[in-house]
Amino acid sequence: MIRLVIGSSMVRPSYPYCDVVAHEVENNKHSPPGTIDLHGLYVKEAIERTEAAIANAQRSGAEELRVIVGKGIHSQGHVAKIKPAVQGLMQK
Predict the structure, then answer these.
(1) What is the pLDDT of residues 20-64, one digit of tens each?
(2) CB of 44 closer than 8 Å to CB of 64
């Protein structure tokens, strides 16, 4: 079983928020092994990436997967959407 750690931030370079695809690639390029950063993704994309990362972690025998979700600052109403969705995924 993989231990999933959900966090809201990590040290990372600043980025132009409108360039989501380039940011996603760049942000995860600097993420340590066993960590995925979901900043800038839509909820559906974040869930798909999380499911894929969990499957990869299970195949590789990893014990832990860190998921960086953000605080929702750039979301409409400044309300986090990804964190509750990932937490819901873990309850399935």
Answers:
(1) 444 455 566 667 788 898 988 889 999 999 999 999 999 999 889
(2) no
Domains of the chain: 3-91 (3.30.1370.110)
* Cα–Cα separations (whole angstroms), residue 85 to 10, 18, 31, 34, 42: 19, 22, 21, 20, 11
Structure tokens at 41: 């993704």
Residue 34: name the closest of 1, 10, 11, 57 by CA.
Answer: 57
Contact of 37 with 10, CB cutoff 8 Å:
yes
Entry pTM: 0.72
